[in-house]
Amino acid sequence: MDPIKLSKEIHNDIINWRRELHKIPGTGLDIEETYNFVCNELTKMNIEFITLSKTGICALINGENPGPTIAIRADMDGLPIKEETGLKFASNNNCMHACGHDAHTSMLLGTAKILSKYKSILKGNVKLIFQPAEEISAGAEPMIAEGVLDNPKVDRVLGLHIGGFFPEVKAGMIGVRTGYTTSAVDKLSVTINGKGGHGALPHLCVDPISIGAEMISALQRIVSREINPLHPVVITIGSIEGGSTWNIIPESVHFQGTIRTIFPEDRELVEKRVIEICNGIASTNGASADVVYDKICPSVNNNSEVTKSFMKSALKIVGEENLVYLKEPTMVSEDMAYYLQNVPGTFFFLGSNNPKKGIIYPHHHPKFDVDEDVLWIGPAIFVQAVLDYNSNL
């Protein structure tokens, strides 16, 4: 069984699936067209599946020999972005696959097509997880709660992300690392309640704008003065709302932002200090603050043993020159983290930016695209990893 040969033989199928999926994106759990497309393709392959979490799909390929279960996960949802790629198969429904999830889904379908024909040599099972709502970190947890990692129990899990998160991982290359690989993401929302009045009489008011400015400045000192300088932390305030005109002090100001951490201990410290600082500054200035700190998603933490095993499999597909060990994690988040909190596994990156083809735009950009020439690599690596896992039993 040659995973490279088999994947290249169905490369056109993978591309066609990707293009069909690209036309019909949805967001969150509302991805009914994508869900129906994947269900129809799995049915054509005679692969059994069940529905979880409204539009999530758990398919199972039963090997004809006893053994453990390895899961492979792909996310399926898009983003609320109006597409500007100019592609013939561009979406026209004001949603867009601007993060490559259409490619993830098509590569998992390719993996399914190959493995479904080789049940006779498989030991144990391969579980295929097609997940909605990754972009809002609301897909993995519900599917896990509904049993996607059970019946049969998953022993190992793999997943990938396509695109250009890491400049050193060029088109056709694989990037991977052990340990923390993506950041945790949390959301901060603060409303400062002051006392409004005339802009010429600030002593009769409690100015929420100046208080907000003080808060935002103080929050940045958490990063520069309270965190180990070797630990990445990002506090970004993305929006501020308050005031109506130039000479009126408003009653309230609202701001919100994103907080990114790699290490769990930093995440706990930042949450504690953000709440203390916002409430303290508000109180000191005679105002009050409503502080909401939402924990959205933890860090992806790749298991060392599984990752080292995976790297050996990837080496067989892309060669040493195209296998990159990532020195640092990325500060983007991924709810693949929830699977890895429950099951040992690894999450890796497939480079698909290609300046020669004009494929240069970052994730979440209205002109984001992927180099389709690399799509065969995903199934080839997944199949090779399954075979190697089986051979070590």
Automatic annotation (TrEMBL):
InterPro entries: Amidohydrolase, Bact_exopeptidase_dim_dom, Peptidase_M20, Peptidase_M20_dimer. GO terms for biological process: diaminopimelate biosynthetic process. This is Amidohydrolase. It comes from Clostridium paridis. Its cofactor is Mn(2+). The keyword Nucleotidyltransferase does not apply. Mn(2+) binds at C99, H101, E135, H161, H364. PANTHER family: METALLOPEPTIDASE, PUTATIVE (AFU_ORTHOLOGUE AFUA_6G09600)-RELATED, PEPTIDASE M20 FAMILY MEMBER. It holds the Pfam family Peptidase_M20.
